[in-house]
Design a protein that fits this description.
heterodimer, A: 114 residues, alpha+beta, CPE0013-like fold, 2 domains, three-stranded antiparallel β-sheet, elongated, B: 419 residues, FAD/NAD(P)-binding domain, Immunoglobulin-like, 3 domains, seven-stranded mixed β-sheet, five-stranded parallel β-sheet, 9 helices, 29 strands, 22% helix
Chain lengths: 114, 419
């Protein structure tokens, strides 16, 4: 039995995950908590939010995120990929700026228009 | 003459203006000192916003962007690069702008939505030399996320509020080494999820009941000394730890930015550092409303939005009805375990069906009951499994219960004895 704090939402439910019983989750306030508990103990993932260089805008950075969670151990690899990039304004919110980043299946999308 | 002037174009001001427009006002002005709308959300590039309001997880710029888009579908006027200098009790707003110069505008109603600012080194009096490299966490956040500057390479963070935790992760992702997060209280001021995903994920140690007792360095921070504190928060000699670092980030609390509010003569609450407000976010000056972090510091922008929509809708009603006669007022008092409540006053006759009451507790509690009493009578009771000072609580009081109360109601906490 493992105890976790759910990070899906600000409520922060205290989860109990039973590894011996097919990762059955208790203590979760919603179905997303059950999913988080199972994934966290089998192959933990996170959404990465960061910025990339952007020319021609009001500020020299454009905020971005992965459009789905990526494996936790690849977070720094994703960061290195973002460090290689430079965008040019205009950029639209939701625009894919890098697809299938580090072969994770996730796209990097802009989180604001510039 | 405007129906409504909203001071501040962050999440509170945007939501209030949109709600007032929906409420029927057609001459609304937002005054914003920055060069763009959105406020602090623009630099909060992490996700976790909007789960309540939009039922999905957004980043700060996305959350702001949605409201800016909503606003652009209305006829609300916006003045950017414009600083409000004074608000008077008869609802004149003095402002100065880059292109518009000095202007005085008259409003039928005003929403104060100026937000808050960070406490600094001076506010907490950290001993030591005065080198470069000491930043508030929010200033560092702006440098990194908007302006593209890295404030330092080896970092100690004082304070475990959410901004500090978020910056611990952010600095780590950008290649800095975060040596420690130091918290003077025996518990973190931030959300549990941020302890997990910002500190635990990156093996950053959290030192509870510790504080910074010395900053060393001539031109740039070279070392920070951290000491354990006793239960009265006094440093314990002999517990010093020395961290070799070039940067100290401070996440040591937020102060509602109420210079304009005080100057206007609005009655203030010493506990929230914001205006005393009624159930509809109206201040002691009729037609002047306050919402968002200028009223009390929130944990979640979703709650700022909800509160500000109430303020905006109330401003619209105020203008439509041209004010009305004074009514029965209930004082809301803080009982055992409660630090503050918002609203501080309720006019039951103005409550349609129910009234939301927000408050913070002064200690961590397990299984607890929230008790609402009036005189010797208990009028409501709510159960909670967990209460913490870092997490704003709210209860909903139906109108019928408020009608039972006389003159005042008291909100208090009672921890349930473990069997």
């Amino acid at each position: 039995m493992k105890e976790l704090i759910c990070i899906v939402c600000p409520k922060g439910c205290h989860l109990h995950v039973d590894e011996a019983n097919d990762y059955k989750v208790t203590g979760n306030g919603c179905p997303r908590g059950a999913e988080y508990g199972r994934i966290e103990l089998t192959h933990p993932t996170r959404v990465v939010t960061s910025t990339v260089r952007c020319a021609g805008g009001r500020y020299p950075r454009c905020p971005v995120k992965t459009d789905q969670p990526v494996p936790k151990e690849q977070i720094f690899e994703v960061m290195r990929a973002l460090d290689q990039m430079e965008l040019t304004a205009p950029v639209q919110v939701g625009q894919v700026v890098l697809s299938d980043v580090c072969r994770t299946g996730a796209n990097v999308v802009a989180t604001r228009s510039i | 003459m405007y129906d409504l002037i909203v001071i501040g174009g962050g999440p509170a001001g945007l939501a209030a203006a949109c709600a007032a427009w929906e409420g029927g006002l057609r001459s609304i002005l937002i005054v914003e000192r920055d060069q763009e709308l959105g406020g602090i959300l623009n630099q909060c590039i992490h996700n976790g916003f909007g789960l309540h309001y939009f039922k999905e997880e957004l980043t700060g710029p996305e959350y702001a962007g949605r409201f800016i888009r909503m606003l652009s579908d209305t006829g609300v006027e916006v003045r950017l690069d414009t600083m409000v200098l004074e608000v008077t009790a008869d609802r004149q707003v003095h402002m100065v702008g880059k292109t518009t110069g000095y202007r005085v505008e008259q409003a039928r109603s005003i929403v104060l939505a100026m937000g808050c600012r960070e406490r600094t080194r001076g506010a907490i009096g950290i001993p030591g030399t005065r080198p470069a490299g000491v930043f508030t966490a929010g200033a560092a956040q702006r440098y990194v996320n908007m302006e593209g500057w890295m404030p330092g390479n080896r970092v100690v963070i004082l304070g475990s509020g959410d901004i500090g935790l978020i910056m611990a992760r952010r600095m780590t992702l950008e290649g800095a080494k975060v040596l420690a997060c130091v918290e003077v209280m025996p518990y973190s001021g931030g959300l549990n999820r941020n302890i997990v995903q910002c500190l635990h994920d990156y093996d950053i140690p959290l030192y509870l009941s510790h504080t910074v007792t010395d900053i060393r360095g001539k031109d740039r921070v070279e070392q920070v000394v951290v000491s354990q504190v006793d239960e009265r928060r006094n440093p314990i000699p002999g517990t010093e730890m020395v961290f070799d670092c070039d940067t100290l980030l401070l996440s040591v609390g937020l102060i509602p930015e109420n210079e304009l509010t005080r100057q206007a003569g609005v009655e203030m609450d010493r506990r929230t550092n914001g205006a005393v407000v009624y159930e509809n976010m109206e201040t002691s000056i009729p037609g002047v409303f306050a919402c968002g972090n200028v009223c009390h510091v929130h944990d979640l922008v979703d709650f700022v939005t909800a509160e500000s929509q109430r303020a905006g809708a109330a401003a619209a009603r105020y203008v439509a009805q041209n004010g009305d006669a004074p009514q029965r007022v209930l004082q809301v008092r803080n009982g055992d375990g409660v630090t503050y409540t918002v609203p501080q006053r309720i006019r039951p006759d103005r409550v349609e069906k129910r009234c939301d009451l927000f408050f913070r507790v002064n200690r961590i509690c397990g299984d607890s009951e929230i008790l609402v009493t009036s005189g010797d009578t208990q009028i409501a009771r709510f159960k909670r499994e967990h209460l913490a000072p870092g997490e704003m609580e709210n209860i909903t009081l139906p109108r019928v219960l408020l009608d039972k109360a006389r003159d005042e109601i008291t909100v208090s906490i009672r921890e349930v004895e473990q069997a």
